[in-house]
C-alpha cells in the first residue's frame, strides 16, 4: 500500500472535519431545543464569547486581533478560536441564539447568558495568593465570581425566588471546564507537576461547590466538563521536553501531563456521582473533552499536535511563545478545518463543533444533553 503523502493526509483530515461541520449545520430533528428556555454558561477562555473585551480591547490581548474569528464571524469577537466555540454550537443546536456575554451592554438575557471569561479559575484569587502563586494567576472571574454575576442579572430574568427557580429549572447550565488555569498557576511558575497535583482536591471540590450553588439557585440540568489532555497541546509540548519514552508512541503527547488530566477527570466524575446521590431530582452530566481530543490525534487521518495559527518555535508544533497567534510573526494555516488546534492552546471551530455534537447527542458525555 502506498504511503500517504502529507498533502493527502491533510486533504483527508479536511474532508473528515468538513463532513462533521456539515452534519452540525443540519438542525436536529428532535431539536429538543424547545425543552430549554435558556442556556447559562460558565468557564474560561475555551468558552469566553467576549466578556474580556466588553470594556475595550487591551493592547496586549492578541486573541482580540485577526485572524481570530475569521471562519464564522469574519472578525475577532473575543472568542479564542477561528470561529464558533463549543457553547455556540450547543445554543444553535438547541434552537437558541448565541449567548451574549454577561457583561455586554444593553443585552437581553431572556434566553441565556455567557459568564465565561478568559483566565478564569475554579478557585478564587485569594487561594493562590496564600500559596505564593498570585502573580501567575490571571483570574478575571473565578467560578464563584461568575455565579455571583448570575445572581446580579436575576432581576432581569425573574421577579421572585419561585419564578427564578421555575425559570432555571427549564434552563441548561454548562459549568466549565474549570481547572486548566488553576493548574497552570504552579506550572507556569516553573514548579513541578507535583505542585499541581496538590491543588487537585481543592479544584475538584471548588467545582463541586459551584455546582451545588447553582442547584440551590434552581438548576435542574447541568453539564460539568472535565479538562482536556494537556499533554497533547502545542503550548505544553513546546515548554516541556521529555526523553523519547515520555511521549505517547501513537499520539506524540506528553504522557505524564495526560495522566494528570485523566486523574483530574476521574476525581471530578467521583465528585459528580456524590452530587447525583445527594440531589436525585437533578440531572448532572459529565462532559468529555479528553476522549475526542485524543481521537483527533489517533484518527486514521492523523492530525498532528500542531497549531493552525502560530509561528515556528521549538519542535514541529508551530507554536512560539514570542510570536503567538495574533502577534507579529504569526500566521494562520490556509484551512483551519485541517487542524484541531487553533493557536496551540485552544481548538478550531471544526473541533469544537465535533465535541459539541458528542455532548448533545453522544458519545462524548455520560448521557446526552438531548434525550
Automatic annotation (TrEMBL):
Keywords: Glycoprotein, Hydrolase, Signal. CDD domains: SGNH_plant_lipase_like. Pfam families: Lipase_GDSL. One of its GO terms (molecular function) is hydrolase activity, acting on ester bonds. Coiled coil: none annotated. It comes from the Eukaryota. Residues 1-25 form the signal peptide. InterPro entries: GDSL (IPR001087), SGNH_hydro_sf (IPR036514), SGNH_plant_lipase-like (IPR035669). PANTHER family: OS06G0531600 PROTEIN, ZINC FINGER FYVE DOMAIN CONTAINING PROTEIN. Belongs to the 'GDSL' lipolytic enzyme family. This is Esterase.
Amino acid at each position: 500500500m502506498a504511503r500517504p503523502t502529507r498533502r493527502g493526509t491533510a486533504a483527508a483530515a479536511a474532508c473528515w472535519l468538513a463532513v462533521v461541520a456539515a452534519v452540525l449545520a443540519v438542525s436536529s430533528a428532535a431539536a429538543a431545543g424547545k425543552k430549554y428556555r435558556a442556556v447559562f454558561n460558565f468557564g474560561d477562555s475555551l468558552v469566553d464569547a467576549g466578556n474580556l473585551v466588553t470594556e475595550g480591547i487591551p493592547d496586549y490581548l492578541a486573541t482580540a486581533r485577526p485572524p481570530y474569528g475569521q471562519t464564522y464571524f469574519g472578525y475577532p469577537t473575543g472568542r479564542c478560536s477561528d470561529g464558533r466555540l463549543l457553547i455556540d454550537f450547543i445554543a444553535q443546536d438547541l434552537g437558541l441564539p448565541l449567548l451574549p456575554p454577561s457583561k455586554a451592554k444593553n443585552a437581553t438575557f431572556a434566553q441565556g447568558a455567557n459568564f465565561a471569561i478568559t483566565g478564569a479559575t475554579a478557585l478564587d484569587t485569594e487561594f493562590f495568593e496564600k500559596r505564593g502563586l498570585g502573580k501567575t494567576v490571571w483570574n478575571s472571574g473565578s467560578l464563584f465570581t461568575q455565579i455571583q454575576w448570575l445572581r446580579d442579572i436575576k432581576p432581569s430574568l425573574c421577579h421572585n425566588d419561585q419564578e427564578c427557580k421555575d425559570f432555571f429549572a427549564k434552563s441548561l447550565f454548562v459549568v466549565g471546564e474549570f481547572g486548566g488555569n488553576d493548574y497552570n498557576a504552579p506550572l507556569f511558575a516553573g514548579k513541578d507537576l507535583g505542585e499541581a497535583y496538590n491543588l487537585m482536591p481543592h479544584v475538584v471540590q471548588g467545582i463541586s461547590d459551584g455546582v451545588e450553588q447553582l442547584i440551590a439557585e434552581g438548576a435542574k440540568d447541568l453539564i460539568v466538563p472535565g479538562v482536556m489532555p494537556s499533554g497533547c497541546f502545542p503550548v505544553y509540548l513546546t515548554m516541556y521536553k521529555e526523553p523519547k519514552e515520555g511521549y505517547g508512541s501513537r499520539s506524540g503527547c506528553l504522557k505524564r501531563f495526560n495522566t494528570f488530566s485523566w486523574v483530574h477527570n476521574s476525581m471530578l466524575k467521583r465528585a459528580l456521582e456524590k452530587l447525583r446521590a445527594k440531589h436525585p431530582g437533578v440531572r448532572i452530566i459529565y462532559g468529555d473533552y479528553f476522549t475526542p481530543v485524543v481521537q483527533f490525534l489517533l484518527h486514521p487521518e492523523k492530525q498532528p499536535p500542531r497549531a493552525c495559527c502560530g509561528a515556528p518555535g521549538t519542535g514541529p508544533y508551530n507554536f512560539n511563545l514570542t510570536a503567538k497567534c495574533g502577534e507579529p510573526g504569526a500566521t494562520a494555516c490556509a484551512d483551519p478545518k485541517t487542524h484541531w488546534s487553533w493557536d496551540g492552546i485552544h481548538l478550531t471551530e471544526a473541533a469544537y463543533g465535533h465535541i459539541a455534537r458528542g455532548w448533545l447527542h453522544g458519545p462524548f458525555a455520560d448521557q446526552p444533553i438531548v434525550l
